[in-house]
Amino acid sequence: MSIDHTFDPVSGLKQLQDEVDANLSGLFAEPVQWILNGGGNIQALLDQVQECLPTTISTEQAHLVATWCCVEALRRVPQWETWKIVQKLQDNSWFIENWLIDVVCVVIEKEPVKKQDFIILAQAVISETDCLFLQEPTEENQETRPIQEKLSWQQHDKPLQEIWWEIDRSYYPSYRRISDWFYVLTRLDKTQAALTLESLKNPFLVQQLIARVGMLEDNHTHKSWQYFMQEAPAAFEANGAWTGHILAPLMLAWLRSYLLRHTANYGSTEEEKAQSKEQIKQWVSDNIPTISQRSDAIPLLKRWSAWLMYRLLVEGGDKAEDVSSSAFVDVTLLTAIGHLFTEKTPNLAQVSPDALHWEHWCNLANGSYWAQNGVAIDYDYQAFLKE
To answer: Which three-class secondary structure state does DSSP give residue 221?
Structure first.
């Protein structure tokens, strides 16, 4: 089947709404009900769509209407079971797979009163997906991705370090459809999005949801990342012990990963390197100060900065000015954290109860780095040099 990639589903749906005086619900009531009754055959849906129209329409228009029918079914019964039916149709339709969220946004724009239905649906889809991770492994489910992720996660005896590393570095969008719904939820109700996000237990799912909305820009500022960082539950006790909450550490790990993806290529020109360096510094200065408003700011930043120093020492401090190196990102982050500590000075000699063997030494190294580089932090770096 030939696909006209120039066809715009957004303008196409708006035109259709105008042509039928927005009475799509009445015109396509039967196909929508067919979906709700469990219909999962895409060709049968297209046939029903065509039967509802007085004239023949193009392939793209037919698939657009079919996508709208899926959206309307989801709106009418915003439940997990409806979503499973629509997923079957998505599996067999490039159009529904790629147009569904665009159509949702057009429907909400045209009829804002329907917004709450999609908020309920998005919360249900995300929460039920997380519940799959919480199931006990059985012969029936042990090969499913959520259970495989659970088994993988349970094998880590140092889960916090795994989070700092970024738990899934393959960037395979295994939760792309779910993250699309989180995008919708974030746009419609950021408060409910934050509550939903902090309730999740599957770190692989959380990481991909963060990635979907992490740098949504409103007026050219990174408000989504900042908002979720401020709202995330306290991740560390005052003594530095990890509470087990995964959201804040995952958000920090994702921010570093985001910065790394914007470092310069080795073949970049000097102008491109300068632009990359300035952009990374700007992102860090825009976002890191947000963390200082958290109740666990000191232990959170202390634990993360120890890992950043660990990575810097592995990468090589001599590469700190090389914008194509991870060392540049880590130094930029450490410098920003050091400036925050001028107002909230941590006890770098205190060892967290669950600290790894290298963290104490890296804390001392950080203190020395900040003191020697002009960050006004009260620290006797001579003690570190002697050690």
So the answer is: strand
